[in-house]
Amino acid sequence: MSATGFGRVTLGSVAVRVGIVLLCLLWFIPTLGLLVSSFRDEADVKSSGWWTVFTDPFNVSQWTFDSYSQVLESGMANAFVNSLVVSIPATVLPIMIAAFAAYAFTFMRFPGRNVLFMLIVGLLVVPLQVAFVPLLSLFSDYDLNGTFLAVWLAHTAFGMPLAVYILRNYMAGVPREIIESAEIDGASHFQTFWRLIVPMSVPALAAFAIFQFLWVWNDLLVALIFLGAGDNEVVTITLRDLIGDRGQEWHLLTAGAFITMTVPLLVFFSLQRYFVRGLTAGSVKG
Amino acid sequence: MSDDPFLKIVNGLVAIVLGVGGTVALYWVLNFLVGLLPGKWDKRIKPYVFIGPAILVVAVFLVYPALMTVIYSFADDNSINWVGVQNYVDLFQDDEFIGTLVNNLLWILIVPAGSVIVGLLVAVLADRLKAVPERIAKSVIFMPMAISFVGASTIWGFVYATRFAQGDEQIGLLSAISTSLGFEPVAWLRISDYNLNDLLLIVIMIWLQAGFAMVLLSSAIKGVPDDTVEAARIDGASEIQIFFKVVVPQIWPTVIVVFVTILILVLKVFDIVYVMTGGRSGTSVLANTFFVELFEFGDAGRAAAVVVVLMIAVIPVMIYQMRQFKKQEAR
Prior knowledge:
Chain A is built from 13 helices and no strands. Chain A is mainly α. The radius of gyration of chain A is 24 Å and the shape is globular. Chain B is mainly α. The model of chain B has no long low-confidence stretch (mean pLDDT 90). The chains are: A mainly alpha, B mainly alpha. At the A-B interface, helix 1, helix 2, helix 3, helix 4 and helix 5 of A face helix 1, helix 2, helix 4, helix 5 and helix 6 of B.
């Protein structure tokens, strides 16, 4: 539907603008408060509302990076590295495995195909909590709890149903003739997969990669259970501990929260198009 | 810090190289070995080489633990002795747990509907703007999607912050507004009357999810053919009538998809409650109770029973999902 197609009569364009501006303000103001406070002096943050800066925003002396350096030194820098170390392998591993599976589900015929795929569809909605207690004891048998390997494995498994589902749906849109002509040319499945389907599926692979990366980076629950606090803790845990231990130190909390948000926001603003596509593909189709 | 960050990065890089390289090598070797088999067997076994690792991962880390959780839910706190259905009896005789179930119900009644309504409103309003303002407005509403639940909890914790000492200025937005209107300062998240504290937590989830609803609904609205709208307009329908009788029926399947997706997410909501209140003042939800039972009370049996209740709540959605999928495949 075109922008002018509908609605020039009853809802005046002024009302539309007022409505959307109000909604946007409502959505943006909480984040703005966080951002502004993270750059204010500790005494200022604790003695006056962040909105008071707008009476004199160009008074440079009120802005400071102190809270950031304080938070980074008290463990956030270490956690930031940990988050990257957790998130990148936990994104790459499931993609590889899921791509092979999605190929088989799409282009190969074998007994049990439908049942196994239904299992994947069913697992899409299963809450992760069902796996935690037994996995904790399984991991402790191998001394894995608290290690990066434990979270990599957990995230690989937890992301698998969605990965297979997204990739299989995307591959189902590839014209069958392409596969058939490759087969006639004598290409094996392995070659067809590697040389044809993987390059053609890059948009879906990218969409899932962004989705999974943000999910892992932003995750608190899996990290709490399998990694916990300590040397290997990730940013979400560090922030949670800040909230728990120093809940009134808003200058630290706001700076800490903003540090945890930098990477997702960067990914979000630079790859918004793919991210949107990922959400569209990831939402379970009706 | 005893661990060298450099060592960790190397560790991560090794994981990527070994993981990816190892996986490719595994597939290659298996594929090669199966290729040695006579023609018919090659064809029969190869599909299982392709799906094998994915199914194995899912079986070991999801299906097996899920079954074990059901079994643990009939055992005691250390999963050693059988206790029959005692864990379930205890849960359902506990008023706090019933309150938790009511809270979960409140979340699933309000969040999906609220997110769809806000998302629809923004999608419709933004659709009438010029391209650049439309993009900006949508980005603003969508941005919280990138923010973690813990980050969002910090953002909103600051909005809800209250100071009680005489002469202290309010630094939280909500308290600043309420005290300027003449009310006494209150600790917002401790007010359980009319589930106010639950509602304040629910607001955070809607704030996070409305963008997702908007993106899908907006693209659905743009897909509504112009001529159906024009035809209704020529027939003299008002804009409101057009919206509810022409546009909404055509985007209804998308509304359902958005609704179900958010519903699934809300059923297992954890982080917001855990970080903001820890489930105190009657705000707990199933996933939080699970965590508390397991790590604060060390009762694996009761924790497992809580998860089984959660799993049972998900089953209708799962059946719906599978049916939809079958329908879609049949098309």
